Amino acid sequence: MSAEATNPATPGPVVPTAARRKARARIDLRRLGRAALLGNAARGKLPDAIGHVAEAHRAHHPDADLEPLRRAWVLAESSHRGQMRKSGEPYITHPLAVTLILAELGAETTTLTASLLHDTVEDTDVTLDQVREQFGEEVRYLVDGVTKLEKVDYGAAAEPETFRKMLVATGSDVRVMSIKLADRLHNMRTLGVMRPEKQERIAKVTRDVLIPLAERLGVQALKTELEDLVFAILHPEECAHTRELIAQNAARADDPLADIADEVRGVLREADIPAEVLIRPRHFVSVHRVSRKRGELRGADFGRLLVLVNEDADCYAVLGELHTCMTPVVSEFKDFIAVPKFNLYQSLHTAVARADGQVAEVLIRTHQMHKVAEAGVVALGNPYAPAADALAPDAPVTDASDAPADGERADPTRPGWLSRLLDWQKAAPDTDTFWSTLREDLAQDREITVFRPDGGTLGLPEGATCVDAAYAQYGEDAHACIGARVNGRLATLSTVLKDGDTVQLLMGQDPASEPSREWLEHAHTPAARIAIQRWLATHPDSAEEPHTPVAVPTRPVPEPQTATPRTANAMVADRPDATVRLAGCCTPVPPDEVTGFAVRGGVVTVHRVACAAVAHMKGTGRPETAVSWGDSTACRVTLVAESFGRPHLLADLTEAMAQEGAEIVSATVEPPSQQRVRHTYTVELPDAAHLPALMRAMRNVAGVYDVDRAQHQ
After folding, report:
1. Which of 123, 361, 447, 592 is catalytic?
2. Which of 122, 255, 321, 423 is catalytic?
């Protein structure tokens, strides 16, 4: 994990500011490296170089035990002694710098100990067993997690397989990826002596993999600096232009953002709300994005206001005062406190406008929210500490002997996206597939939550469809999915889901159910795509067959017949011999609650009481006739079946009806629409009591998702 000399073309880094309010001067890592080799600490004291790490660490963890850091420093310095970086610096400056980055972010002692040792197993004679003996299983696990696989063993697959190894380790302990991100940040800061083509290759991997991981883990302080460093390498001209814009704004005589900050301070002071109002300059990439979005930039566009308060309720109090006393831009309001982002981020976002048109974006959060916003999972400390202490800034580090054994780790900070990633990577044994799919997956940087009818939830990337939801819920059993209801309404599997939707997946009963090649066009998640592709690869013959929406029956379906008036098993209360006809609009059967209306020719038409025609006729003043069911139980009824198209569906459906003793009088099958088919059957049943069983049998046919009584006018 070597890193090189400072690249003068890169923009200045954004120094992490979590857990401290005043900016600290940039530490000269070269000077620290020389001090590490030349300076001799007095007995019992930390060497000068590691002393800077200890100072940053104690700012977050005042009671931390520094003895593990001292011992790790001794082992790392002695192991790397004599090794030099390509820039000519002593190699020890790299693990020292990585550890200092993590210390500034608030990492706990175990992480810092592993960070100091993170290259010893890879680049020196130190073994993992030695690390375990001296520092415990927890540190050994972290060091092993970030140790690269050898190119001698893996060849060109070494880099992607190393990332796979790190991600699997991260699934058990997110601190593995914290160390990797800090390692990449220092390497990117010092990439200048590399050949341009190698700089570009490393920058692209950083852009496609490391930056999205930093975003998903919420480590914004690392993410923003990595973005700027990649920007300088891959887009040097645009970076230079952005640098010029920032310099021009800095040379302005007036600063509208400072004026607005003063106004905000005054508003909050009058409201007696204790708050700290800071100006937060945008980093290079952020300025570039804003300039592309808005065109010409104004003074307030080069930064945002950050309001820090003590309690959650104070955030909303600040928001209320700003919206009352200043001119809010309502369209810019977002509440990430009530609904946090998937990467732990919490804050209120709003914007206020001045009379001259200057608009300032405002972020409102507590000090603890700010710490998590800057450092993400690093701010959570030791994920294996007791729950009550996990978020405490000075939470004690659990001893390695108290850590769960391998295979029993239960990291409470493991997010849903990581669980999904770990699931699909198991199904992608091919290195190229894993590497390309990983980049594709990480490019989806927003997440939605959809609800299942049973009250459970599914976390999916933005843009996910019902196909993705099916594979997220059922895995490869989703091959049998035949459709979905979204928010209670029938939807095709290609339907794109929105945050908060309720999704009911309709599963077929046919064991021969198979996914369609068309599903690949609608699969947004790697889990769905890999499962479908794997099935198609193992069933090439089925994959080539076109999916026929409805199979043509071997014998023609009878044309629809007009129901002729017939005497039903119903009697008119005061006219026992009257001719009775069952209404075709609702086809009542015993024991439905019914009513009648006299029509021409002395015939009484019988309707279900709930039929829409009854309300219409009563509304026009038509008198009702009391009717009741007679002793005969035979009935004729019209049923409507809704289904998805598949081969042999019609044959299976009519066979199921015949087995229930139903005689089909007439049937119509409408042309398929969006892979959905509507069937209408008028059937004779020897006993009306068999109707519920008939409808259940029809619903159980694979592909049929609804059966109901006809309700037409």
Report:
1. 123
2. 122
